[in-house]
Amino acid sequence: MYKLVTIIPISNFSNSKTRLSPFLSEIERKELLKCMLKDIVSNIRSSVEEIIVISKDEEVLEYAQSLGLKCLNEREHENDYLNNSLLDSISYVKDNYSDANILMLPADIPLIKQRNIQYILENKNDFIISPSKGGGTNLLYINNEYNFKPQFGEFSFFKHVNEARRLVMNPNIYDSFYLSIDINTPQDLGELLLHGKNTYTFKYLNSLDIVVENNHGGERLNVYRKNE
User: Fold this and answer.
1) Cα–Cα distance, 48 to 148 (Å, whole number)
2) pTM > 0.90
3) What residues does 77 pair with on adjacent strands?
C-alpha cells in the first residue's frame, strides 16, 4: 500500500466563514474552524504519512503545530493565491516524500471518516475526487507522478475533472454524503448537528446552545440558538 500525504490550506482564522457572521461571532467562528481541523486530524491521522497545513497566518500555523502537524508558510503570489500555494505544497511533497501520493482537503469537512481515507488507499486510481454540494471540491487525490494543477475556485469540481482528463487520468468520482458537507451556512451547522454527534465540532456548537429542528417551510432545517 502506498503512502499518503495530506495538504490542508487555511487562509486565516480571523474574518473567516463570513456567511456565518449573522449567526456566529468572529471569536465563535474562529473556534469553529479550530474544532473542524481537530476533527479532520483525529479521523485521518492514523491513515496518512503526514498532514501538512499551509498558511500565512501565524495563529493558524501555531495551532496546527499544537496538533502535531507539519506547517508550511505561504509564499507571496501575484494572483490565484490558493492554487499557486497548493502548487508550492505539491512541490514540497514531491521533494520530501517521493514515495507518497497527495491528498488535498479543505479545513471545513469535520464529518470526514477514516473509511473515506481507506477507500483511497485501497483503490489504484491516479485521481479521486469528492464533490461538495455546490459544485466545489471537498477531497482531491492525485498520483504524484502527474503534474496536476489545482483548480480551486468557483465550480472547482468540474475544473478538476477536466484537468484530470487533460492529463489522461481516469477520474474516480467518489460520492460521499459526509464529505459533501462543508460548513459555510447555518443550514450546514444543522447537518453537522444531525450527523456529527461524536465530533469536537458538535460538542462546541452544543456548548453554544445551537439546536436544529425539522422545518416544513422554505429551509429544510431550522437552526437557531436557544437563548435568542
Assistant:
1) 20
2) yes
3) none
Single-letter residue type at 141: Y
CA atoms of 220 and 195, how far apart (whole Å): 15
Task: Report yes or no: 208 and 216 within 8 Å, Cβ to Cβ.
Answer: no
Mean pLDDT of all residues in the chain?
A: 93
Sign of CA dihedral 17, 152, 143, 172: positive
Per-residue pLDDT tens digits for 91-120: 999 999 988 999 999 999 999 999 999 999
**pLDDT tier for residue 74 given thresholds of 50, 70 and 90:** confident
Is CATH 3.40.30.10 the classification given to domain 3-180? no
Q: Is 184 helix (H, G, I), strand (E, B) or coil?
A: coil
Cell numbers standing for residue 217 = 417551510
By DSSP bridging, strand 3-9 and strand 127-131 are unpaired
User: What is the Cα–Cα distance from 69 to 191, expressed in whole angstroms?
Assistant: 28
| Spacing of C-alpha 14 from chain mean position | 17
Buried b (16+ CB within 10 A) or exposed e, 67-92: bebbbbebeeeeeeebbbbbbbbbeb
Domain boundary assignment for the chain: 3-180, 186-225
Rounded distance between C-alpha atoms, residue 23 and residue 29, angstroms? 9
